């Protein structure tokens, strides 16, 4: 069973992230998930996530979005978590603006792993108590502990 | 007594498949409309829309055929016929079949004696 600890590094968890809109939130997530750690890698992630959003919004409702992308540049599966300072419109099915962003990027030949962590994440996020706790976590460390506590 | 489950992905072969059941001595079955997990997620759950290309070859829907089998030999007769009709059940995208034991059952029609005999050609 894949664990969040396998894909989520503490340095990729941020709270109070300022983003003006959905594009800004995706950009902030991309910067955390850049495979090469530089701007070019971030741009590749941002472009792939943006392309994915054109299929349908990854805003899953209840103020949560799970943008994700498969890109050739990614060496392994990685996740970033951002709690936005102010919610932004994500085009979610329930119309609610998003303040919790769980972004995932992984290699194109790792779709199976990607699907597993995506499914685990959505299961956890279905729990209203988890969402409340994620919004009330004092800082990135507390938010990380909350997520890691889900296995 | 066993429950024979056949998930047929090639829906277009349903008629021939059911004829094969009768030929093999299985005159009773229930047919359900069904759908594969992967296809459903990719096409019905927006979050998974990005994974459509990884589901190439999957059919949107399939048929699940349930049949209670009292004669094990009927399954032995059925499998080669289905292989011939489908080009091989083990070929990707064709279907899967399996049996599970049935501990108890009630309400089954008594088979006619001819149903349990080796079919004649």
Question: What are the salient characteristics of this protein?
Answer:
heterodimer, A: 151 residues, alpha/beta, Mannitol-specific EII, Chain A, 6-stranded mixed beta sheet, 6 helices, 44% helix, globular, B: 121 residues, alpha+beta, Alpha-Beta Plaits, 4-stranded antiparallel beta sheet, 3 helices, 4 strands, 22% strand
Topology:
The complex is a heterodimer of chains A (151) and B (121).
Chain A: H1 4-7, E1 8-17, H2 22-33, H3 39-55, E2 59-61, E3 64-65, E4 68-70, E5 78-88, E6 98-106, H4 111-125, H5 128-136, H6 140-148
Parallel strand pairs in A: 1-5, 3-6, 4-6
Antiparallel strand pairs in A: 2-3, 5-6
Helix pairs in contact in A: 2-3
Chain B: E1 2-8, H1 14-24, E2 30-34, H2 37-44, E3 62-69, H3 72-86, E4 95-101
Antiparallel strand pairs in B: 1-3, 1-4, 2-3
Overall description:
The complex is a heterodimer of chains A (151) and B (121). Chain A has 151 residues and is α/β, with parallel strands linked by helices. Chain A has a single domain (4-148), classed as Mannitol-specific EII, Chain A, CATH 3.40.930. Chain A has helices spanning 4-7, 22-33, 39-55, 111-125, 128-136, 140-148, and strands at 8-17, 59-61, 64-65, 68-70, 78-88, 98-106. In chain A, strands 1, 2, 3, 4, 5 and 6 form a 6-stranded mixed beta sheet that branches. The longest helix of chain A is centred in the first third of the chain and has 17 residues, at 39-55. Chain B contains 3 helices and 4 strands; from the N terminus they run E-H-E-H-E-H-E. Chain B has a domain at 2-34 and 61-105: Alpha-Beta Plaits. In chain B, strands 2-3-1-4 form a 4-stranded antiparallel beta sheet. Chain B has helices spanning 14-24, 37-44, 72-86; strands spanning 2-8, 30-34, 62-69, 95-101. Chain B has 121 residues and is of the alpha+beta class. The A-B interface holds A 52, 55-58, 60, 66, 68-70, 93, 111, 114-115, 118, 122 and B 46-51, 54.
């Amino acid at each position: 069973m894949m664990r969040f600890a396998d894909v989520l590094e503490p340095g990729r968890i941020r709270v109070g992230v300022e983003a003006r809109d959905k594009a800004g939130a995706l950009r902030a997530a991309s910067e955390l998930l850049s495979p090469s750690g530089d701007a070019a890698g971030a741009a590749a992630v941002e472009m792939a996530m943006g392309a994915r959003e054109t299929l349908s919004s990854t805003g899953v409702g209840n103020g949560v979005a799970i943008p994700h992308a498969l890109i050739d540049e990614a060496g392994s599966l990685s996740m970033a978590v951002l709690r936005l300072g102010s919610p932004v419109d994500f085009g979610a099915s329930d119309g609610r603006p998003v303040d919790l962003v769980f972004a995932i990027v992984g290699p194109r030949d790792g779709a199976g792993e990607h699907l597993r962590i995506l499914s685990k994440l959505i299961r956890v996020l279905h729990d209203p108590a988890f969402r409340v706790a994620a919004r009330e976590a004092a800082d990135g460390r507390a938010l990380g502990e909350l997520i890691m506590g889900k296995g | 007594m066993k429950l024979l489950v056949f998930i047929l992905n090639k829906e277009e072969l349903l008629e021939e498949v059911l004829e094969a059941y009768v030929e093999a001595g299985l005159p009773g079955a229930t047919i359900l409309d069904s759908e594969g997990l992967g296809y459903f997620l990719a096409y019905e759950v927006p979050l998974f829309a990005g994974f459509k290309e990884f589901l190439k070859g999957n059919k949107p829907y399939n048929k699940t055929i349930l049949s209670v089998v009292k004669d094990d030999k009927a399954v032995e007769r059925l499998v080669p016929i289905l292989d011939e009709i489908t080009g091989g059940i083990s070929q990707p995208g064709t279907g899967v079949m399996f049996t599970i034991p049935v501990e108890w059952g009630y309400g089954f029609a008594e088979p006619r004696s001819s149903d349990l005999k080796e079919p004649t050609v």
